[in-house]
Amino acid sequence: MDLQLAPEEVAFRDEVRTFIRDNLPPNTRDRMRLGYKPSKPEIIAWQRILNAKGWATFNWPREYGGPGWSAIQRMIFLEENLSAPAPELLSFNITMLGPVLIQFGTEEQKRRFLPRAANLDDWWCQGFSEPGAGSDLASLRTAAKRDGDHYVVNGQKIWTSTAHHADWCFCLVRTNPQAPKRQEGISFLLIDMKTPGVEVRPIISIDGSHHLNEVFFTDVRVPAENLVGEENKGWSVAKYLLGNERTGIARLGISKAAIRRTKEVAREVRMNGRPLIEDKAFRIRVAQLEVEAKALEIMQLRVVSAFEKSGGKKPDPLSSVLKIKGTELLQNSSELVMDVGGPQAMPVWQQELAALTNEPALAPDWAAQMAPAYLMLRAASIYGGTNEIQKNILNKAVLEL
Amino acid sequence: MDLQLAPEEVAFRDEVRTFIRDNLPPNTRDRMRLGYKPSKPEIIAWQRILNAKGWATFNWPREYGGPGWSAIQRMIFLEENLSAPAPELLSFNITMLGPVLIQFGTEEQKRRFLPRAANLDDWWCQGFSEPGAGSDLASLRTAAKRDGDHYVVNGQKIWTSTAHHADWCFCLVRTNPQAPKRQEGISFLLIDMKTPGVEVRPIISIDGSHHLNEVFFTDVRVPAENLVGEENKGWSVAKYLLGNERTGIARLGISKAAIRRTKEVAREVRMNGRPLIEDKAFRIRVAQLEVEAKALEIMQLRVVSAFEKSGGKKPDPLSSVLKIKGTELLQNSSELVMDVGGPQAMPVWQQELAALTNEPALAPDWAAQMAPAYLMLRAASIYGGTNEIQKNILNKAVLEL
Amino acid sequence: MDFDLTEDQRLLTESVVRLLGDTYSFEQRKQMLSLPNGYSERLWRQYAELGLLGLPFAEDFGGFGGGPVDVMLLMQAFGRHLVLEPYLATVVLSGTALRLAGSDAQQAEIIPAIVSGKTTLAFAHYERQARYDMTDVLTAAKHQDDWLLDGAKSVVLHGDTADQLLVSARTSGERDDPQGLSLFMVDASSPGITRHGYALRDGSRAAEISFSSVHLPTEALLGEQDNALPVIERVVQAGIAATAAEVVGGMETLQAMTLDYLRTRQQFGRPIGENQALQHRAAEMLVNLEQGRSMAMLATMMLGEPDPAERARNISLAKVGVGQAGRFVSQNAIQLHGGIGMTDEYAAGHFFRRIMVFEHLFGDIAYHLDKLADDID
Amino acid sequence: MDFDLTEDQRLLTESVVRLLGDTYSFEQRKQMLSLPNGYSERLWRQYAELGLLGLPFAEDFGGFGGGPVDVMLLMQAFGRHLVLEPYLATVVLSGTALRLAGSDAQQAEIIPAIVSGKTTLAFAHYERQARYDMTDVLTAAKHQDDWLLDGAKSVVLHGDTADQLLVSARTSGERDDPQGLSLFMVDASSPGITRHGYALRDGSRAAEISFSSVHLPTEALLGEQDNALPVIERVVQAGIAATAAEVVGGMETLQAMTLDYLRTRQQFGRPIGENQALQHRAAEMLVNLEQGRSMAMLATMMLGEPDPAERARNISLAKVGVGQAGRFVSQNAIQLHGGIGMTDEYAAGHFFRRIMVFEHLFGDIAYHLDKLADDID
Questions:
Q1: Which domain holds residue A39?
Q2: What is the ipTM for the molecules in this complex?
Q3: DSSP secondary-structure letter at D130?
Q4: Mutate to test the interface with C, among D270, D274, D276 (most CBs of C within 10 A)
């Protein structure tokens, strides 16, 4: 047993860190350090830089252009990218669609979609959740009826992240409503978002951002060649996708960046007439977050290492522990950042700033994204299976109660 | 709406405080301040002093010797007694058996038992729980079979507090095993602990104390005149007893005494070369406990006041809130006291102290009872309906989920 | 001790509940957000007609002569609907300053205008660099022939539309000096004042206000020169009590929405509220709500406490208690709602954000725990 | 990075698991508690035969040449059974001091006696007034012809039966001075030593030890005069790592007992483990257990970290993490057991108390959070 990173792993981390430092556009980095989310062009630009380097397909097999990294290297790469902070790879393309096509796709589908997904020439989104099918995904009702060499799709998806940016959508649809079990009769379909009958309506989140959407399908004709895997066997494709390696599930890099940021800003604001950073109670709160971050870091290494040892076959139920603790830390660290900002974190400055470019700064630039980050991260314990669902998983898979 | 104590209530509090200060035996007070539990003679002596004053029966109707206090006066009295700290009135006698006999007892039973219960001439204990009947009390199995003018009792009770001190026990027994519902066929019986066939076996608690017992009944003959209420209707007697006014349920006085004590001892121990009381992080922990104590104090006033307004009829479901927050505070404050003691709180000193009376003190006298109090109070969230059961009650009675 | 409402309080509460029930649905409120002032002037007039704007003022000045409990009941009702009008800024904060520090002449001039709904006020005290420190005032007023005011105030609630500003300024002493502060009543349209209005995260309005050589007449001074801190403290305490009551109202609505959602939302063929883990969470929310309610009551009652140390201490206890309760209830309300709770279209997130904003006014949990810690004997 | 056990580690673990499985049932342990020493000398000899007592010592001195991970695995197994023998005191604490500070001659003399099970040691450093402060040493040693030792040590683990005591004493400087401490190896039977043995709350033994003009030969000095603090710090760090592993073992047993109880205990006609609220609590216990396990691994690995600041910092992180996990798991284990968990007859309470005792050795959560807070840049 040896918990240190091996020298070659440290060297790898330094290589990644250096590459990101030297190649990440400075504008993107500076805005993200202030907590702004990257724009669509920034995300595309950065993924293309990584793809040119051969790293965008970090988790794909070598024969499909992957770099052939170990699980630990993959983890290091993701964490370094997050804590830079740099835009994340578009997970719909890289960790979802890619592995699914490699496992289930036809040669034609692979040839047609994989390189464009890697280079973000196509922006993909995920059409899974429906208004009546959240945690209970198998109750989905969007229907796809075979009509010659097409499927005709009708129904509605919800919580569709970045659908308004997307060129394509991979969807779960019901192809056999008469199937005896709800999980049967579902198919996995690739839908061109420019097809007539596809309508995207924005959902504005409580942080004021437009990230989520509703997607309506009305008599949308999808060529039958866009079916992935067998008809009515889409549930196993979806299970493969959802059960896939969850290396980055804790998103520890984001929390680490938040802890760093809370200390930086605490040097600039005061408490009792002294810099807040000197306040003992504040320092104890930071120390507590650092305890959580360190525990998560070790836990993550353990899970990744076990995944590697199992030959990448067995999804570890302890990844539910990572999800729970990871999201708690995301929420607690973003909360502390906001508390440091205090009243200055409360205004919605954006419109005003845009209208007043020649005025002196209306607010400290560190304050603008504190509350949005905190608000947005309330969703962390909801998406990808709520933390309550994660406890049910632990209960079934580990505790056997 | 007026949240202050009225002047006459303040005067009442001062009267109680003065009486306790002037009449509580100094030895008892000093030992209890160090966290020791009062001995049987100390409990008896103090209850007799209060009974002579007319206060021991603080919650009984005037015609049975009660002082005729309002709910708020009763609360003030109990809190002052706890935070003195003075021994508590024996609740089996005063808040359980007394009201039950007054409501359901025969004249003969009242005449025979009430004055002796008030003066602690008889020490009562409660025979409710059984090994298979904890939270699920109605599944109890101790049997009482009618035989002429006696009942013959066979079975086992458990968690019987102070049974080893007790002269009498009020018991739930099953008199009709064929009753269609489990709650029917139960009777409420008074059993003389000196009757042949009663055997008390100690249960030692994790704090090392002997407080709990198992009580075994083997062919114990109990005169039929000792039945309270109707045969097979004991469940309604028990429900009356358990649903009775729970004024003191939060036991706030104990927590307040613990908070006071943690500050006292923190003056005597060091952290970073200074008195611990000067450590900011410690002070924040104390402040947080004071927030909880204050909230509980107001909540208790609200519940007691509502109880008073309802004419003492309706048990308030919010008393479950008092139970939950009250026990959390008991546990958190005893934990902080122990943390202040640190390593000095870890030894079991008693035997050694007893053997070494002529030696210099083996340990600071404030340290001896810190861990026992903490350990003993782990039970606070278990007895009287676990905190999980309290949440079920809130769910049913208030939330209606 | 008495937790019952008086007949007057019952009537007041009923009329407010009726008014808000008719006028303050979530959809109606959304429209008010886009009004020029960020609130409804029509409703402001209705508040005046109902006597709400005169609630805490003496009858001599046209007020209703009500006490802190009356204001608490009103703010709690406001909190249930996320009311947008500048009641806190005008009546609670500025009103408290006027009542405590205003001369009879000043009160006679301005209070009737408040009561009738003609004039709104904002309390401009905190500055950008000060965070929660009450004595960190860099805005300065110099007395020559008249007063000359220079400086800037930050996150001034409803400062964008207020007719009059109550401005704290240093008239002597250094930064952080508890002595040397004074309060001034300033016409918001005075030359040299620049205001940038904006929305806070909960949709309510605030402003950055700067003062550049603003001339004030001698009689603009409100209360004692150099000794405004005790007044400012009581204004802040009144703000804490009022926002605590609003948070309680907000928690009540959130709790009701959450229970409703748990009862109706189906997953795996049954209401999610049948999950015991969620039932227990809802019970813990109730525990927190009742804890917060108790602490809001404490803050209200303590506004009348004569001993300043005792008053400050209890109000800090209350701010911490309400803050922690609000955090727990609002965070779990979103969690139990799942995705829908994260959307701007749904009311829960708006309550969440108001509770978040209030937590960061007048000192947050850490600030008041710090005060309490200092105070331990 | 590698979490797998080596073949040697696997074999070690298996033999220990077998031995403890045979000898350390709860009932067997109860009998050992009443032995004169408070532990089994017979088992101590068996540990020697298995090579456990030589685990971390160099092969030159008859040791096994194992590393921190080997000790961690052993302590974790000990923790699952609440082992009573003085392994922590003799091998971990005193052994670390000997390895770091002992001359070759000292090591050659004493280590073989430890390895063979002939000699037990205790590490007598903390004093009653010091609480967790490592430099608050009032015990003093003066050098004349030989050393003259005066003072008192408190809560010395297994100090009642140890043959040799490693005693820290001030040889120069004032109270709290980080310089001026020295370590001495003291025969426990020396004239002038008084020992009062007692049980700690978990049943393990400790002692108050006083020294009154105890004469020590010059060669009793262990390591550098006046500069023992770095050694003491590493001894304490080794103690933290070892007890962290024991706490993990204890949590494992508690978790297993709790799950078993949830599955079998019936209330209202079904196992209480069917309550989702209790299932989620058990899941949270698992989360804490895994968190604590990770932190115990961290502490172990950091024992070899050469940078003292980095080592101290990470070990403080680990102590806090294990402390909080242990508290959560042990408190909830009792809660989920209900009444039976409160009884001395049942094993859960014994695990609870060992975790409680370990939390209050070598600095508690607050102490180490304080160190971490000081360290923030």
A1: 7-89
A2: 0.95
A3: G
A4: D276
